Automatic annotation (TrEMBL):
The keyword Coiled coil applies. Pfam families: AAA_23. Residues 6-112 form the Rad50/SbcC-type AAA domain. Residues 380-466 form a coiled coil. The keyword Coiled coil applies. InterPro entries: P-loop_NTPase (IPR027417), Rad50/SbcC_AAA (IPR038729). This is DNA sulfur modification protein DndD. One of its GO terms (biological process) is double-strand break repair. SUPFAM superfamilies: P-loop containing nucleoside triphosphate hydrolases (SSF52540). One of its GO terms (molecular function) is ATP hydrolysis activity. Keywords: Coiled coil.
Length: 676
């Protein structure tokens, strides 16, 4: 998908009909919208987001009031957004036009057209087309409110893994495997019916029961995860409102910081628990064997003293004397002599090189067991001491969190708004915990059924091999089984390649741009992404470097899907190719990283759309983006009221000054002004 143009009509801050075009070339692929806070950057992001999905970003407020206020007062009751885009997957690059409209009363309209030689042909099921081109679960990867980058979790949740797999096109292969599984089940039922075998029939019936239950469980899990996402969005919206109230703002800010610290210590607590288990697991054999090692070594020394193990001479010494026919004392040892016979007899008691090596290995093992046994009390004590410290810090933070919450509730005024918001926050938080538990329980049931089905399938196949079935049916079943095995192996190989490339590209970005020697690790089981320092210790995602990791991850995923990474994959199915649209992309970053992140975003993406304030458009950001900017617009804010003490905000671009806000205007609105 490549965006070509956008038309907004009476949508939020945008009065009347306004049209913009996006930079859509391969070289000049970046479109920049400059605007101050409140000018309409977030409205623009949501105009595109809503047009495609019918949904809004989590921080978008007052979602029912979409019609521009000035237009509404003038009697216009409907707004619309129309998007023209090109599907790059189709041969020839087919173009589509999407139009979505709404009233403040909740009435909506939606139309999708295919552009064919200048003519628009309506597509009956346009929602399906858009879901195919850009699945709803992936929209957050490509259309992103970057001020909320801190809320992006790379911790490997089931939803995170599912969305990432969709981005990389793996879900289509999963669907194919499900379809083949259904074909395989049908053939197995035919085998069971043909042989009239009770065991096969019982096993197949159990698999059929799981097959009937599993789709409903998976749908319920998706529903719970979607519900959880809505709750998270509402929860964040309530907290944003709370943070805008003057007296509540510093307390809410401090509470957020306390929460971040609690999450960091909770993560460390989990890691420490895992470390304790690892230390015990590694030391357990040594601790069990340690009492035996002293006795074993004593036995070795005793045998050596007796001259048996090893002997005081080696087999090589005896053979050297026989070969040279000269004893070490200088006397001759001629073949057949009594001396030669006596020396040859010594071979029965001489030690060999192999025996000496085995003895050396035994002693090394004893030393290693002793070292592990000696280090265990120290290692486990240090780790458990740290657990105590972390638990104490968590307790302190939890009490601090409660005190801050109490302070918020005790603030008077604002018509009880703080108390109302706090009450709503608590309700949402409780609901979030309940839905999280329900989703976890449902995922556990799904996992149990998956394991049970695999076990039943293995037992069925083992029993089936003992029976005689028709050659045709056996051939058909074998074909499906071999095809499924091939696809699974290919998918596993491709996933491994994708995650490897993702890690390589991520670490290349981090190496170029981070001032510290940090690297990224990806868990192949959960897709969790973790930033670690040189010693392998986890670095929090809330740090400046953690924020860079998140931007680098988003850009790398988009690049991998669009085949723009240095390393390539032969995809089994088409991954998602879409523009990256970011609102306020650099405001959450430390200034030292803004230029490098901008450069990486411009390099990795097929098409990049940025909504950015003048404060974030520094020299480093400008230097990184100017060579690839193909379209540039100002979002100019107009206020109908007088200026008073309010400032005039300006932006300097390429040696020229541009005014970003006006007062005493005909109406309050935001206007797009193209900068040539």
């Amino acid at each position: 998908m490549r965006l070509l143009s956008l038309e907004v009509a009476d949508f939020r801050a945008f009065h009347g009909v306004q049209r913009i075009e996006f930079a859509a070339g391969d070289d000049k692929r970046v479109t920049v919208f400059h605007g101050e806070n409140g000018a309409g950057k977030t409205n623009l992001l949501n105009a595109v987001h809503w047009c495609i999905t019918g949904q809004f970003t989590p921080r978008f407020q007052e979602r029912r009031l979409l019609v521009n206020k000035e237009a509404f007062r003038a009697g216009r009751r409907e707004c619309h957004v129309e998007l023209l885009f090109q599907d790059e997957k189709e041969s020839g690059g087919l173009q589509y036009r999407v139009r979505r409209s709404a009233t403040n009363e909740g009435q909506t309209g939606f139309e999708v057209y295919q552009i064919d030689r200048g003519n628009s042909r309506p597509i009956p099921n346009g929602e399906s087309l858009l879901r195919m081109l850009l699945p709803p679960g992936l929209i957050s990867w490509f259309f992103f409110d970057a001020e909320a980058i801190g809320s992006l979790e790379l911790s490997g949740s089931p939803e995170f893994k599912r969305d990432l797999r969709k981005t990389l096109g793996f879900d289509l292969v999963d669907t194919l495997l499900v379809d083949l599984e259904a074909v395989q089940s049908k053939r197995r039922r035919e085998v069971a019916n043909q042989t009239n075998d009770k065991e096969l029939t019982t096993l197949q019936n159990e698999m059929d029961n799981i097959d009937r239950v599993l789709p409903g469980q998976q749908e319920s899990a998706l529903g719970l995860q979607a519900r959880l996402k809505q709750i998270e969005s509402s929860y964040e919206e309530v907290r944003t409102k709370l943070g805008k109230l003057p007296q509540a703002e510093p307390i809410e800010r401090q509470r957020r910081e306390t929460e971040r610290m609690m999450l960091r210590f909770e993560q460390e607590r989990k890691e420490l628990d895992a470390k304790v288990a690892q230390i015990i697991g590694q030391a357990a054999p040594a601790l069990l064997l340690q009492p035996l090692t002293a006795a074993l070594e004593g036995k070795l020394e005793q045998e050596e003293v007796r001259g048996k193990l090893p002997a005081p001479y080696s087999d090589q010494l005896v053979r050297d004397i026989e070969s040279s026919q000269v004893c070490i004392c200088g006397r001759p040892v001629t073949e057949g002599s009594v001396e030669a016979h006596k020396i040859h007899e010594l071979l029965r008691f001489a030690s060999t090189g192999a025996l000496n090596q085995r003895l050396s290995d035994v002693r090394y093992l004893i030393r290693d067991i002793e070292r592990q046994s000696a280090s265990f009390p120290v290692d486990i004590a240090l780790t458990r001491n740290r657990i105590v410290e972390v638990d104490q810090e968590l307790g302190r933070l939890e009490q601090e969190y409660k005190d801050l919450t109490k302070q918020l509730n005790e603030i008077k005024g604002f018509g009880g708004e703080i108390q109302r918001l706090e009450s709503e926050r608590e309700r949402l938080n409780k609901e979030r915990r309940e839905v999280t538990l329900q989703a976890g329980a449902m995922l556990q049931q799904i996992e149990q059924n998956d394991r049970r089905r695999k076990d039943l399938k293995a037992r069925f196949e083992a029993a089936e091999r003992k029976l005689v079935v028709s050659k045709k049916l056996k051939v058909e079943l074998d074909k499906v089984t071999r095809l499924m095995d091939y696809i699974r192996r290919s998918l596993i190989d491709q996933e491994r390649q994708a995650l490897t490339i993702l890690a390589i590209e991520l670490n290349a970005v981090l190496k170029r741009y981070l001032t510290k020697h940090y690297s990224a690790k990806i868990n192949p089981a959960t897709y969790a992404v973790q930033l670690v320092d040189e010693e392998g210790k986890t670095v929090g995602h809330s740090t400046g470097e953690g924020q860079v990791l998140k931007f680098a991850f988003i850009a790398t995923v988009v690049a991998l899907a669009a085949r723009k990474t240095q390393q390539k994959i032969q995809w089994m199915s088409e991954p998602t190719i879409a523009p990256l649209v970011l609102d306020a992309p650099f405001s959450a970053l430390d200034p030292e990283y803004q230029g490098s992140v901008a450069q990486n975003l411009a390099t990795q993406t097929t098409q990049l759309v940025l909504m950015i304030s003048s404060a974030a458009w520094g020299e480093k950001v400008a230097a990184a983006l100017e060579p690839v900017v193909g379209k540039r617009y100002l979002i100019v804010s107009h206020e109908s009221g007088a200026q008073g003490d309010k400032p005039i905000k300006r932006l300097r671009l390429n040696g020229e000054d541009y005014q970003l806000n006006h007062y005493a205007s005909e109406r309050t609105e935001s206007v797009f002004v193209e900068v040539k």
